[in-house]
Write a structure and sequence with these properties.
Blueprint: E1 4-6, H1 7-31, H2 36-60, H3 63-66, E2 69-71, H4 89-113, H5 120-146
Antiparallel strand pairs: 1-2
Helix pairs in contact: 1-2, 1-4, 2-5, 4-5
Amino acid sequence: MGEQTTCSAIISFAAELEETSSNLYEELAERYPEVKEIFLSFAEENKKNKMLVTRTYQETITDALEACFIQINLSDYAAETTLKEGVSYLDALKIAIELEEKANRFYLDVTERSKSLLATIPRAFQKVAKRRNDRKLKLKTMLNNLK
């Protein structure tokens, strides 16, 4: 099912996920100017996601919450966020889609497993999961338009 992971470690993982995702989309915006605005909007949304998750956690942190553990293996959600030199636009979209799929699954799993905590925590994760899923669908549309 997963390993025992503290809420603090989960929040740190989420913050890092949003940071590296933002960096990926900023790099995609530089490499593919024809869709620059889309990728920059994704990067900006990642920054908002990071702020939402970390602020929600900081506002609700208590000794009970800090001492809680959630069954989850964070390495299951690790995704590639760097682009190799010369990667094609098609392959870059595939990397982004895989990132969004793993991120969405992470946020949904944490939402489900944190329901016994204060309601604000799973609500924040659920909101980010929806954003990531919507983005995945947009990326898949972009990919399908290339075929």
